[in-house]
Each structure stands twice: as C-alpha cells, then as structure tokens.
Amino acid sequence: MRVSRVQVLSPAMRRITLTGPELEGFAPPGPASYIKLIFPEPGQTEPVRPLPDGPRAVSMRTYTPLAVRPETLEVDVDFVLHGEGPASTWAAQASAGQVLFLMGPGPGYAVDEAATQHLLIADDSALPAVETILAALPASARAQVLLEVLSDAEQRPLHSAARLEVAWLARGSDHRAAGLSLEKALRHGSAIAPDARIYLACEAAAMRRIRKLLTDELGIPRSQIVGRGYWKLDEVNHPDHDYGDDV
User: Fold this and answer.
1) Contact 149, 155 (CB under 8 A)
2) Tell me: the pLDDT tens digits for 120-149?
3) Per residue in 205-217, pLDDT tens?
C-alpha cells in the first residue's frame, strides 16, 4: 500500500489515504472494524513484507478503516500523533509515495438497530471507530457522544443520520489523566437511558474504571456495554482484543 494523500485534521490528528491493488474486493464487515498496518523499522524506508509462516512484525498496529472507496482502491486511516511510537512517529512525517503493509479487515461493533438510545464514550484513539458507528446509526436513533481529546483544538464536526449530542472534553498533555474527564462527565451529566447501548473505547485501565462506574454507580447492565482497551499507559505493545474480560 502506498500513501496517496495526507490531510491535517487537527494539531494531533492526521488522515492518511492509502491506495493499492490489495484493496480489490476489500470490504470492512461493519462499523469499528479493524485493519493491521505494518510500519518500517528504524533505518528502513519501507517495512519488510510479512510472510504467512514468518514471525509477527514488531511495528504492527491496529486501526479502524474510516472510509473505503473500492472504485479508486483507496482507504482513509486517521492517526493520533501521541508522541514516540512506530505509528505516531511515521504518521507525523508521512508523505505521498511511502509504503506500508495492510492486513485485514477484522470484525467490529454490531449496532443494535432496534435500540433508540446510544452512548459512545471514547478518547481520541477511538474517534475513527466512533465516526463509523455514527455513520451506521439510523435517523430514528439518538446518540450521545463523550470524546476525550488532547485540547479544544481537536474539535471538529461529526456527522450522523441520528440525532446527535456531542461533548468534547479536553484531557491536557498528561496521559496519566486518561479517562478522568470522561468519568467526571458521566457522574455530573444527565441520566443515561436505561435501555441505552453503550460503546466504550479508550485507555485500558480507564475503560475498566468507567465500565465499573456505569454498572456499579449508574445501574447500567454490563450486557449493554461493549468495552475496548485501545491502548495502555506505559505499555508500548498493548495486545489487541482487550475487552476487559479479566474483571
């Protein structure tokens, strides 16, 4: 896959369009689905092509394909520039013509089309997943969105056929504050509809704390909450598929 365009969405977010024949027949299975991208190692101009029986690539990260255009063999992927790390470092300097390898897609979030109330709780790492979920909601639904981002400069329009209420919550530059503004907003916000379907995706420990808040303090059945730990503080290679099943 080659980079065809780089768009600056905000100070800390880049939208990078990838193109290549590998996207022939590429069809994400639903909102918040995932792909895996393999990045160059230090000193490489492009990554080594993975082999089916070879070792797992070290610099491989999981992302949400935001928009796929099969007619032009293009996919848009949004990157958060969060500091050091193979993906963030690469995205900060990405330019047209650079090469990545793409694997996937994998399954995502099953939207309950019968539900009329949806609550999406996320930090900036999960913003692309939130956008794909919003795009899948029907006009009959109502969606409340709580988004924790680096600063107010990260705010941008979100779109959905559903009736939409969005709160942008500035975290600041201290990653150790991950999830705190989301917890505060939930404790001091309006009551959550008892039948709301909730998608919760952020730092791994924060996701567990917020899910406990929802169930223990706010009375939401755990069965109505889908939790995803997108990253973990002080851990470089946090494993995929962190659903918080350990608690």
Assistant:
1) yes
2) 999 999 999 999 999 999 999 999 999 999
3) 999 999 999 999 9
104: left (phi over 0), alpha (psi -120 to 50) or beta: left
CATH fold of 2-106: Elongation Factor Tu (Ef-tu); domain 3 (2.40.30)
Residue 102: which of 71, 68, 63 has the closest Cα?
63
Looking from the CA of 171 toward its CB, the CA atoms found within 13 Å total 25
Q: Which helix (H) or strand (E) holds 76?
A: strand 74-80
pLDDT of residue 200: 98
Q: Domain boundaries in the chain? A: 2-106, 117-231
Q: Which of 81, 84, 74, 90 is nearest to 37 (CA)?
A: 90
CATH 3.30.565.10 given to domain 117-231: no
Q: At CA 211, angle to CA 209 and CA 212, rounded to 5?
A: 65
Longest CA–CA separation in the chain, Å: 53
Q: What phi, psi does 88 have (nearest 5°)?
A: -65, -45
Please state, in angstroms and rounded to a whole number, the distance separating the CA atoms of residues 169 and 171: 6
* Beta pairing class for 34-38 and 60-63: antiparallel
